[in-house]
Write a structure and sequence with these properties.
single chain; 239 residues; alpha+beta; 31% strand
């Protein structure tokens, strides 16, 4: 992909996270799908909605998403990515956990297309704490429009579904502080079939000051791990 033939993409306002910018997981997946295997995406600036963005190679195997001179995100392969997935959560356990979902009905993320309570056309990925365990879970049945021609959910929607639960995994208790996704690494190991019920789980890994790291996975109804991720979130200094 030369500079003369740089690809352009648009993040539709339908796929917002905060009300005025793109969902971080969705945007990360749009870039990551250009690579084989696991990928890492670093988000550098809020993702503009309904704007023409340039996707260009950096000459070292990475991709850069740009709006003019502003760097929005960088993506690269992550061949060494691994994350240990906890014991599975059943769909019934996930449904009970979703009843504990702490997302707000108004506010910055209330219209997020993945986890917003105010959305009527979203994923309803409402990850709540699993009883007796330090992890969050939610059922997820990907809608038909997320699928490719073979019926498998496209990468950007898998990355999106993995994104939001990691926030709630780092906030299982206490105040819901403002934390923004700054890095996501993920790998899709098997097709995730649209129209079938799955379970999305997420768990805290570590916290260092304003930085919180969490893991996530998409499981089949029988507990098979289909996709994994880790997500680094940072609480803004102003918060």
């Amino acid at each position: 992909m030369s500079a003369a033939t740089a690809e352009t993409i648009v993040v539709s306002s339908r796929f917002n996270g905060p009300q005025t910018s793109g969902n971080g997981g969705y945007t990360s997946g749009l870039l990551a799908k250009r690579f084989e295997g696991a990928a890492e995406v670093n988000l550098r600036s809020p993702v503009p909605l309904d704007e023409l963005l340039e996707l260009a190679e950096d000459g070292q195997g990475a991709l850069r998403l740009l709006q003019g001179e502003t760097l929005i995100a960088e993506a690269r392969p992550a061949p060494d990515f691994e994350v240990a997935v906890p014991a599975p959560v059943s769909p019934e356990e996930a449904r009970r956990a979703a009843a504990n979902y702490r997302g707000l009905e108004d506010g910055l993320f209330s219209h997020c297309f993945v986890c917003g309570r105010a959305r009527e056309d979203g994923f309803d990925v409402f990850a709540g704490r699993v009883e007796g365990r330090d992890l969050a879970a939610t059922p997820w049945t990907p809608p038909a429009w997320t699928a490719d021609a073979n019926g498998a959910v496209q990468a950007e929607f898998v990355w999106a579904a993995l994104d939001c639960p990691t926030y709630f995994a780092t906030h299982l208790d206490g105040e819901l502080t403002l934390s923004m996704l700054v890095r996501q690494r993920a790998r899709i190991d098997a097709p995730i079939v649209a129209g079938q019920e799955h379970v999305v789980v997420a768990w805290p890994i570590s916290q260092d000051g304003r930085k919180r790291l969490a893991g996530g996975a998409v499981l089949s109804a029988s507990g098979e791990t289909l996709a994994t991720c880790d997500a680094l979130l940072i609480e803004p200094r102003s918060a």
